[in-house]
# Entry
Amino acid sequence: MTSPRIDDDERALLIELEPEAGRLYDRHARVAQEWFPHDFIPYRLGRDFDKQPWTPDQPRLTGVAQVAFEIGLLTEDNLPSYHRLIHGMFGKGDGAWINWVGRWTAEEGRHAIVLRDYLTVTRNIDPILLERGRMSQLQQGYDRDAPDTLHGLAYVAFQELATRISHRNTGRYSDDPVADRIMVRIAADENLHMVFYRDIMSAALQFQPSAAVRAIVDEILRFEMPGAGIHNFLRKAAQMAKAGIYDLRVHRDEVLMPIIRHWKIFELSGLDAAAEEARRRLAEHLEALDTAAKRFEERLAAAGVVRLGSPAGG
Ligand SMILES: [Fe+2]
Ligand SMILES: [Fe+2]
# Structure
């Protein structure tokens, strides 16, 4: 439960950030390109399922590529939960914030549409498995306490970039030009979402630097992918890590570091003691991630595992 006083503080911060949210919304609307899921689907491959049911020999995608598409779609499928959360955080603002929540939700909706259409028409994943996965995923919801504005902004900035890279690498790994083109398109959306949240957080760092730094560090330390609630997620995420689609190295070097650098977290001055302490813990965490990533890479290299990005890999 949030107290009325906290609610007032939250509203005050949203109002303070509103002009910047408006500017960033307008920029987003200018640069975001309209696109249509049907343009990306090879409908010529379609056949009726009542005449020709799905069988396991039909998919062109196999193994980890299939797993990564399943995780990607089920993650996108959970949009109603994310919408509820985002609305809970930013819906207290008005004008630009509400416009953003609506726009963001509408754009995200296309991701599940294009992925499901692709997977169904190409028969690359059992459609019954996908639908059962969606049902269980949505009934369970994405149960995270709605964080305050600063924590929420920090999380979504990292999460959008993580999703961008994960989708992009899933496309590359699939070795299917149709799938790759879809993932490039979705990743471009996720990138613009990240840029909105990253830049609004930059404004928040000006208003409340110490509180913003603490929120950023909190979110990095407890970061979890939005798909974490999917059945067997850990096992599937481990397969994706081994394939090089999303592992500790990617997470540290391609998701955390670019945003941390952009915000100049380690160059800010005049922070309070708690924010300095948070920054110290962040430095330790980045070190530990680096060490763990090296160990993981060495172990796989020694075992001769071919990975995305390795010379013989995709
Ligand atoms: Fe998405
Ligand atoms: Fe997104």
